[in-house]
Write a structure and sequence with these properties.
The protein has helices spanning 12-20, 28-39, 53-65, 89-102, 120-126, 137-145, 162-167, 171-178, 196-205, 236-246, 259-271, 285-296, 307-310, 330-337, 358-368, 426-433, 437-444, and strands at residues 43-46, 82-85, 110-113, 132-135, 156-159, 186-191, 210-213, 224-230, 252-255, 276-279, 302-305, 320-323, 347-353, 373-374. It has 498 residues and is an alpha/beta fold. It has two domains: 6-213, P-loop containing nucleotide triphosphate hydrolases (Rossmann fold), CATH 3.40.50.300; 224-390, Rossmann fold, CATH 3.40.50. Strand 10 (276-279), helix 12 and strand 11 (302-305) form a beta-alpha-beta unit. The longest helix is centred in the first third of the chain and has 14 residues, at 89-102. It starts with 11 loop residues before the first helix and ends in a 54-residue tail after the last helix.
Length: 498
C-alpha cells in the first residue's frame, strides 16, 4: 500500500497546499525525511536533484513553526526562527518559492536574501520581521554586519546543497554563522550526493543525526539515456549546432567549464542561427533571471551555463543536457544530468568528447560504474580525437617543432641553403661594392677652400690692428678727474647723529 501525505501527519493547511499543487503521494525522500524532521532530530539526507528534496524539509519545518504563526505586524512577534542556507542565488530563490507555495495557508513570514542586488531593500524588509529566512552565506554575513539580522532566535538550521558549499569554499562562513546560532537548534543537512568530506563535516554540525539516503551514491537517474560523441576539439561547437538543428531540439541545457567559454559558445550559437543565452556568476541577477525565464518560455533554445550557476535551476521537463566540457570533478556529472529525467519523464544526456576529455570521461564511468556509449555522427570524424592526449599527433602537422626543439627532422632545409651560391658573403660584398666611409668621403668630397674676404670687408682671421686713418682720442685739459671714494658705499647712506 502506497503512503500518502495524510499518513505523514501533516497539518490540514499544508495538505491543502500540497493538493493544490497536484501531488497525491510523497516521494521516497519525502516519506523518510518528513517524519524525522517532525520528531525534532537532526537529519543527514542524500537524494538526487528533482526527487522532491526541497519539499522534504519545507513541509515539516512549516509544521514545526506553525504554532508561532501570527498575523500581527509587530516585528517582535516575527523573529528569525528558521534559517535555510544555500550556495547560489538561483537555489535560494527556488527554496523561497517552495516555502511560499507550501506555506500560503500558514501565516508565517518568509524572505530571501542574496548578493548581487542592492542590500538596502533587504535591510528594510528584515526590520519588519521575518520568521523563515532563506539566504546565501555571504549576503547573510553582510546583513549581520549591518545589525539587520539577529540569529539568536534560530530554532531550525537547514544546509541545502552542502557538497556545493564545500566546493565553493563557504565552510568558514558557515562556521561563523553557526557560532551565532543557539546550540539547542535542530540541524538538517541535505545534498544530492555525499562525499567523505561532507560526512566528516556533518559530524561537526549535527548531533546524533539520522541518515536518509534514497538513491545509491553517485548514481544518475534511471530514466536518463546517456551517450557520447567523439569529435575533434575545434569542431565541438559545429557538432553541437548540428545536433540541435538536425534533431530539432528544444530546451537544451549546455554545460561549460568557464564563464568566458559559456559567453563565447552562446555567441557562436547565435551566429549559427540558434537562440542561445549564457548564465554564470558574472551575470547580474536580473540578467540571470531574464535568461532563465526566456529559456522556460522557449524563447531561448539553448541555455549555456557553468556548474555553479546551474545549481538550483528548477526547470520542469528538461529533455536535453549536453556536456560541452567534461567536468573536472566526476560528481558534477551526476549533478549535471540530474537536471533531466525528472518526475518520471525521460531525458537525454549527451557528452561531446575530444582527446583531452577522455580522462575525465573515464573517471565519470568509474564513478557511475557504467560504460557510456559512443555514437558516431556522419560527417564528424572523431578518429583523431579518439586517442588520449599523450598519444595524439602534433596539431602543427608537418610544419615542424617550435624554436629550440631538438626532436624530429625539419620539414624544410636550413635558411642558409636557400641562398644562391653566386651571392658573395656579406663582408666581401661590402668591401667590393663600396669603399670604407673615410675613403669614400675623401674621393667624393674635395677639401673645402678657405674663404677669402672681399674687398672692403673686415678680416677676422688676424689680430686686431687699428686702421691707418684712425686718430687717438684726446682728453681736454679742463676735464674732471675721477677720484676713488674714501668711504664704503653703505657709509654714504648712514644718518648722521644729531
Amino acid at each position: 500500500m502506497s503512503q500518502t501525505f495524510e499518513s505523514l501527519g501533516l497539518l490540514p493547511e499544508l495538505l491543502r497546499a500540497v493538493t493544490e499543487q497536484g501531488y497525491t503521494e510523497p516521494t521516497p525522500i519525502q516519506s523518510q525525511a518528513i517524519p524525522v524532521v517532525l520528531s525534532g532530530r537532526d537529519l543527514l539526507g542524500a537524494a538526487q536533484t528533482g526527487t522532491g528534496k526541497t519539499a522534504g524539509f519545507t513541509l515539516p519545518l512549516l509544521q514545526r513553526l506553525a504554532p508561532y504563526a501570527s498575523k500581527s505586524f509587530s516585528p517582535a512577534l516575527h523573529p528569525v526562527r528558521c534559517l535555510i542556507l544555500t550556495p547560489t542565488r538561483e537555489l535560494a530563490i527556488q527554496v523561497f518559492e517552495s516555502v511560499k507555495t507550501y506555506g500560503k495557508h500558514v501565516p508565517l513570514k518568509p524572505f530571501v536574501v542574496y548578493g548581487g542586488v542592492n542590500i538596502n531593500p533587504q535591510i528594510q524588509e528584515m526590520r519588519k520581521g521575518v520568521e523563515i529566512l532563506v539566504a546565501t552565506p555571504g549576503r547573510l554575513l553582510d546583513l549581520v554586519g549591518q545589525k539587520a539580522v539577529d540569529l539568536r532566535t534560530v530554532q531550525i538550521l537547514v544546509l541545502d546543497e552542502a557538497d556545493r558549499m564545500l566546493d565553493m569554499g563557504f565552510i568558514p562562513d558557515i562556521k561563523r554563522i553557526i557560532n551565532m546560532i543557539p546550540g539547542s537548534r535542530q540541524t538538517l543537512l541535505f545534498s544530492a550526493t555525499f562525499s567523505d568530506e561532507i560526512r566528516k563535516l556533518s559530524a561537526q554540525f549535527l548531533k546524533d543525526p539520522l541518515t536518509v539516503e534514497v538513491a545509491r551514491r553517485n548514481t544518475p537517474a534511471e530514466l536518463v539515456t546517456q551517450w557520447a560523441h567523439v569529435v575533434e576539439s575545434k569542431r565541438k561547437r559545429e557538432l553541437l549546432a548540428h545536433l540541435v538543428k538536425t534533431n530539432n531540439w528544444e530546451q537544451v541545457l549546455v554545460f561549460c567549464k568557464t564563464k568566458h567559454g559559456a559567453n563565447r559558445l552562446a555567441y557562436q550559437l547565435e551566429r549559427d542561427g540558434i537562440n542561445a543565452a549564457a548564465i554564470h556568476g558574472n551575470k547580474s541577477q536580473n540578467a540571470r533571471i531574464e535568461a532563465l525565464e526566456s529559456f522556460k518560455e522557449n524563447k531561448v533554445r539553448v541555455l549555456v551555463a557553468t556548474d555553479i550557476a546551474a545549481r538550483g535551476l528548477d526547470i520542469e521537463a528538461l529533455p536535453h543536457v549536453v556536456n560541452f566540457d567534461m567536468p573536472n570533478v566526476p560528481e558534477d556529472y551526476v549533478h549535471r544530468i540530474g537536471r533531466t529525467g525528472r518526475a518520471g519523464m525521460e531525458g537525454e544526456a549527451i557528452s561531446i568528447v575530444c582527446a583531452e576529455d577522455r580522462p575525465p570521461l573515464a573517471a565519470v564511468e568509474a564513478l557511475i560504474k557504467k560504460k557510456i556509449e559512443v555514437r558516431p555522427v556522419p560527417g564528424f570524424d572523431g578518429s583523431r580525437a579518439a586517442t588520449y592526449p599523450d598519444e595524439a599527433p602534433d596539431s602543427r602537422g608537418e610544419r615542424g617543432r617550435g624554436r629550440g626543439s631538438r626532436g624530429g627532422e625539419r620539414s624544410r632545409p636550413p635558411r642558409g641553403d636557400k641562398r644562391p651560391d653566386s651571392r658573395p658573403p656579406r663582408e666581401e660584398q661590402r668591401t667590393e661594392s663600396r669603399p670604407p666611409r673615410e675613403e669614400k668621403r675623401a674621393e667624393s668630397r674635395p677639401p673645402r677652400p678657405e674663404p677669402k674676404p672681399a674687398a672692403g670687408d673686415m678680416d677676422f682671421s688676424k689680430p686686431y690692428e687699428p686702421s691707418p686713418d684712425a686718430k687717438p682720442i684726446e682728453q681736454p685739459d679742463d676735464a674732471p678727474v675721477r677720484k676713488r671714494p674714501t668711504h664704503s658705499v653703505p657709509a654714504l647712506f648712514r644718518r648722521k647723529a644729531a
